[in-house]
């Protein structure tokens, strides 16, 4: 709205000759366009050309022929994907990790933010925030490395403590059973603290009068949390949930690739690790692009679906 | 706010504070354990199950990792990539963000949509790899910087910050005869230093942590940044990783203390800038802008 007002004010001849007005405005802003050009080229070259490169999923891409001359094969690679025995394992692993993420990780920042929000001593609150934000700034390599050192069979502190407590050592790192819990714990450790930021910001905007009033009515602290704080951040929760669902298949390639080994491959292999192995390690560019394409497409459809559902439920959604 | 002094409310506070304290400690305990472990001897670590305080202190692990060039060189690579990468990213991000903050710009909405769409859909790993390869970036340090030069989130935060600057300032500068470049350099940038510092730190942390890019685009082990070396020493050397390329360098599995020392070396720079990061996001300066 203000934009149109500004526009109307800018081009003097806009009423009679809209086009010459626009051209004059563009010429006047030429320095601004020049500033945008490098960034624009970046998005074009490293984001949009790869998107158009998805057409190699429908070809038998040969490096020496290039995208233009490689032969077209239609849906061959997709057919292969759906008949590949690995496909269902990967699909299952991806979906399971996603649901575990949603169930065990997603509520943690909300609960932590609720707890932090109840702290009245600013110094204490900031101290705890300082501690729990730290892991977010560590790379996955560091997070996984620390886990490896601590979970190692060879003098890892966790196994030493297990032995002291009278249990057997557990080979966490080479076990299918322990892969998923380990993955979730690492996700919570790295991201839960940082995840509170956006909720805390939303909670800071709640009218203190609501709490005053409920206290006069005799509401306990728990009831205040439940009936005031939570409903007030509902729309933020919905938006983050949609974004999370959009990430359904982005479980963190970097993270899982670091944890993956021959002993847990049956539960740890996901679309991204499969694309990496098939594409870059084995050189099946077209097939792995088809796998990646399938994954991205599902992600896009899911985020649109989640957004549509949120709007149906009377929430704002993300677009 | 009037304090709630009922007994149940006090119990609530006590339980809440205690739980938060435990959560905070559990979060950083692993880091403290690894730091302590890196400063002791192998036998001390083997014999006593300490978590935080060894009885024997030693620098052996550090002497060992710096006895060869590998870790030292990789630290140099990481420092260089972080410095030049942050500079390059900030240049591109600030220019584009300022351009997009101008409300009178034709095509602004189209370019914004173009940026936002990349957050929902991407060409994926292999097509991006092919583009990087076509551009001749494979095995160059630029491969760690150029393909991820702009982070869409950071761009939007910067744009919103520029957009919220008072418009009157630009207007009056224009009346004084300043051009668009003059306004950007002499007015907008100096006024935006807090945001620029914050986003620079975010970029710097990302570049320091860069790992995937190196795995994808650098075959030459001599060019690997410290994160990749850390993975070689801690994860691959445990004989546990998905692939074992580059294993030849390591004769025998390194001791726990050595692994811990490498982790500390790769972590330390982040812990050093952390107080500065903390200062900025504690102010909440970023939060409003993320939502906008």
UniProtKB/TrEMBL annotation, chain A:
Give the species this sequence originates from.
Paenibacillus lactis
* Topology class, membrane: Multi-pass membrane protein
Q: Per the similarity annotation, which family is this?
A: Belongs to the binding-protein-dependent transport system permease family.
Q: Does the keyword Membrane apply?
A: yes
> What InterPro entries does this protein's entry cite?
MetI-like, MetI-like_sf
SUPFAM superfamilies according to UniProt = MetI-like
> Which protein, by its recorded name, is this?
Aldouronate transport system permease protein
Question: Per the database record, which ranges form the ABC transmembrane type-1 domain?
Answer: 91-306
Q: Domain of life, per the record? A: Bacteria
Show the Pfam families listed in the entry: BPD_transp_1
Q: Tell where it localizes.
A: Cell membrane; Membrane
UniProtKB/TrEMBL annotation, chain B:
The keyword Heme is annotated on this UniProt entry: no
Q: Where are the transmembrane segments?
A: 14-36, 75-98, 110-129, 141-162, 183-208, 258-277
Key word Cell membrane present in the record?
A: yes
Tell me how this protein sits in the membrane. Multi-pass membrane protein
Q: Which UniProt keywords apply?
A: Cell membrane, Membrane, Transmembrane, Transmembrane helix, Transport
- UniProt domain ABC transmembrane type-1: residue ranges: 75-277
Reading the lineage from the top rank, the first entry is Bacteria
Q: Where in the cell is it found?
A: Cell membrane
Q: Which InterPro entries match?
A: MetI-like, MetI-like_sf
Protein family (similarity comment): Belongs to the binding-protein-dependent transport system permease family.
Name this protein carries in UniProt? Aldouronate transport system permease protein
Q: Which organism is it from?
A: Paenibacillus lactis
Q: Upper taxonomic classification of the species?
A: Bacteria, Bacillati, Bacillota, Bacilli, Bacillales
């Amino acid at each position: 709205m203000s934009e149109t007002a500004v526009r109307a004010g800018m081009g003097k001849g806009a009423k009679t000759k809209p086009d010459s007005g626009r051209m004059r405005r563009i010429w006047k802003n030429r320095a601004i366009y020049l500033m945008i050009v490098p960034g624009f080229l970046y998005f074009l070259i490293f984001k949009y050309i790869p998107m158009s490169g998805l057409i190699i999923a429908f070809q038998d891409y040969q490096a020496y022929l290039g995208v233009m001359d490689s032969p077209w094969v239609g849906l061959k690679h997709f057919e292969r994907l759906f008949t590949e025995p690995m496909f269902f394992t990967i699909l299952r692993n991806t979906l399971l990790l996603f649901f575990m993420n949603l169930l065990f990780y997603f509520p943690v920042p909300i609960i932590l933010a609720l707890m932090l929000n109840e702290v009245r001593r600013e110094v204490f609150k900031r101290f705890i925030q300082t501690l729990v934000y730290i892991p977010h700034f560590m790379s996955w390599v560091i997070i996984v490395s620390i886990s490896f050192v601590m979970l190692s069979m060879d003098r890892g502190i966790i196994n030493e403590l297990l032995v002291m407590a009278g249990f057997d050592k557990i080979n966490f790192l080479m076990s299918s059973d322990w892969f998923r819990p380990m993955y979730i714990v690492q996700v919570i450790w790295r991201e839960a603290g940082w995840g509170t930021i956006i909720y805390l910001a939303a909670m800071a905007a709640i009218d203190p009068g609501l709490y005053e009033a409920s206290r006069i009515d005799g509401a306990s602290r728990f009831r205040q949390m439940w009936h005031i704080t939570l409903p007030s951040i509902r729309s933020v929760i919905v938006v983050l949930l949609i974004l999370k669902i959009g990430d359904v298949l982005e479980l963190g390639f970097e993270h899982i690739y670091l944890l993956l080994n021959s002993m847990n491959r049956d539960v740890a292999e996901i679309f991204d690790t499969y694309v990496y192995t098939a594409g870059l390690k084995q050189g099946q560019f077209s097939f792995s692009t088809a796998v990646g394409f399938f994954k991205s497409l599902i992600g896009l459809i899911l985020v649109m679906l989640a957004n549509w559902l949120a709007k149906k439920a009377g929430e704002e959604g993300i677009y | 706010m009037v304090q709630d002094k009922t007994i149940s409310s006090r119990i609530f506070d006590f339980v809440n504070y205690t739980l938060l304290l435990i959560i905070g400690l559990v979060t950083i305990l692993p880091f403290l354990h690894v730091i302590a472990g890196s400063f002791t001897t192998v036998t001390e670590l083997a014999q006593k199950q300490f978590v935080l305080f060894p009885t024997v202190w030693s620098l052996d692990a550090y002497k060992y990792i710096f006895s060869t060039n590998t870790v030292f060189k990789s630290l140099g690579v990481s420092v260089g990539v972080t410095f030049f990468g942050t500079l390059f990213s900030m240049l591109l991000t600030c220019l584009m963000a300022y351009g997009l903050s101008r409300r009178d710009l034709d095509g602004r909405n189209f370019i914004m949509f173009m940026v936002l769409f990349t957050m929902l859909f991407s060409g994926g790993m292999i097509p991006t790899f092919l583009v990087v390869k076509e551009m001749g970036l494979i095995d160059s340090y630029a491969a760690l910087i150029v393909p991820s030069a702009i982070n869409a989130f950071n761009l939007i935060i910067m744009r919103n910050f520029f957009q919220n600057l008072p418009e009157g300032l630009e207007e009056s500068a224009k009346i004084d005869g300043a051009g668009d470049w003059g306004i950007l350099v002499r007015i907008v940038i100096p006024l935006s230093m807090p945001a620029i510092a914050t986003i620079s730190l975010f970029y710097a942390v990302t570049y320091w942590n860069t790992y995937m890019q190196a795995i994808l685009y650098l075959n030459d082990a001599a060019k690997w940044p410290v994160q990749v070396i850390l993975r070689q020493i801690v994860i691959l050397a445990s004989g546990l990783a998905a692939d074992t390329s580059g294993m030849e360098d390591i004769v025998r599995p390194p001791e726990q203390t050595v692994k811990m020392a490498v982790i500390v070396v790769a972590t330390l720079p982040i812990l050093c800038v952390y107080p500065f990061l903390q200062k900025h996001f504690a102010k909440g300066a970023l939060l409003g802008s993320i939502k906008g």
